Amino acid sequence: MQDHEHPEPTRKHQYRYLFTAKHHGGVKAAAQWILNEPDEFAVFAGADEWEFLDDDGNLYGVFQDGAGSLRFLGTYQERSAGAM
Fold first, then answer.
1. Which residues form the domain of 82?
2. Phi-psi region of 22 (alpha: psi -120 to 50; beta: other; left: phi over 0)
3. Model's pTM, two decimal places?
């Protein structure tokens, strides 16, 4: 996989999202996404929509399954993910 940008920005703040090779097998020691690209973007877009961010402005997102539980996002069983 090569780095590439999602075709649409987020709705609330018009942020752009970059899918990176680093988190899709490019760097084995890095956290790896297990979601498909639409769901990965939904984590980021949801963080923007709900403004889940830290004091430095970094967004943090989650992905709920149909039953309201948090899905695993990555190979280390992460249930939240951050983006700068």
1. 1-84
2. alpha
3. 0.91
Separation of alpha carbons 81 and 40, rounded Å: 10
Sign, Cα dihedral of 5, 7, 11, 14: positive
The amino acid occupying position 52 is: F
Please give the Cα distance from 18 to 3 (Å, whole number): 7
| Domain count of the fold of the chain | 1
Distance separating alpha carbons of residues 2 and 5, to the nearest angstrom:
10
If the chain, 84 residues long, is cut into consecutive pieces of 10 residues, what is the mean pLDDT of each piece? 97 97 95 96 97 94 92 95 82
